[in-house]
Write a structure and sequence with these properties.
This is CDP-glucose 4,6-dehydratase. By secondary structure, this protein is α/β, with parallel strands linked by helices. The protein is built from 14 helices and 12 strands. Bound molecules: nicotinamide-adenine-dinucleotide (NAD).
Length: 356
Amino acid sequence: MDKLQQFYKDKRVLITGHTGFKGSWLSILLKELGATVIGYSLDPYTQNDNFVLSEISKKIIDVRGDICNRTELQKVFDEYKPDIVLHLAAQALVRYSYDNPIETYETNVMGSINVMEAFRKCTFSRVAVMVTTDKCYENKEQFWGYRENEAMGGYDPYSSSKGSAEIAISSWRRSFMNPDKYDNHGKSIASVRAGNVIGGGDWIQDRIIPDCIKALESNKTIEIRNPNAIRPWQHVLEPLCGYLMLAQKMWESPTQYCEGWNFGPHSESIDTVWSVATKAVENFGSGEIKDVSSAESLHEATLLMLDISKAKFKLGWEPRMNLDQTIEMTIDWYKKYKTQHTYELCVDQIKKYFSL
Ligand SMILES: NC(=O)c1ccc[n+]([C@@H]2O[C@H](COP(=O)([O-])OP(=O)(O)OC[C@H]3O[C@@H](n4cnc5c(N)ncnc54)[C@H](O)[C@@H]3O)[C@@H](O)[C@H]2O)c1
């Protein structure tokens, strides 16, 4: 944490998607590291969101707006002059994307292009980390993890929109922010692909932990649609630290790290949805789970794993927690959020995470 603190102290960091699950944690983490945080996003989804409960908006520059609105986005860059941009804003749900494919593409593809254009035109900004997902790879249901140089793809509109965003990022890098011509443009841009992220303060529907907590809090049975799906689970702090380490390396060596990066768990933390729900119930102390899978369900990948060798060897990043620790810390947040201020709760968990 000390190394990150030394680097991020007084840096101006723009986070798009700061009102969301990962963005709220990232805002708190960066605030604790001493950065000046500027957030640009739509409003939070619910009054229970970590962004709302933690009252992080009082400690940062909180701007509400749409990444599809190029003019407003550019104004934020011009006014706040961020050193570093962490682009997280997205329509982030697979099932929602089947009902809203155009919105998903507008936000995830054109929105990302708008962020890159604003970044490119802002002379003060030097580093951009663009968040996509592990689902950006063409899923072959293979038994080993995807590597950064594998083909982009995606079956559903969400996954394919992120695969498309990756192709756009690669094109913008080659065309406008090419490391070979760094002296002309002074920009470094990378993309990051994380696995399934869990942690306190997420209430979005159709994600396993929020679904479990909502059922457990109302004494209902947890219904599992896709019990056998295998995912790379990790605590939200794991990829966020990876993004921050990467941005620091890009700042220090701008032509060395501007490429795609996977951030996922060790292979022991790759497990089924059913197993995660079972562990969540054990940690909560009560609850029941039911398999409601059906042949009519929308297509979702069954097997998805990431190879994290590159981040381990080139960045020195590595997951700190196994699956049991990840679920324990996550459920601990949901057990405490009604009695402890969630800013303090997140800071306690951040300190615990860095002490591991
Ligand atoms: N949660 C995961 O398991 C996971 C895994 C891999 C990748 N990701 C990626 O990480 C990023 C953050 O995910 P999350 O889980 O925090 O999602 P989230 O849905 O909780 O947050 C999304 C954020 O984006 C903002 N947003 C959405 N559309 C916008 C628009 N048009 N203009 C401005 N802001 C907009 C929302 O207001 C919110 O702040 C996303 O890019 C997502 O695809 C998430």
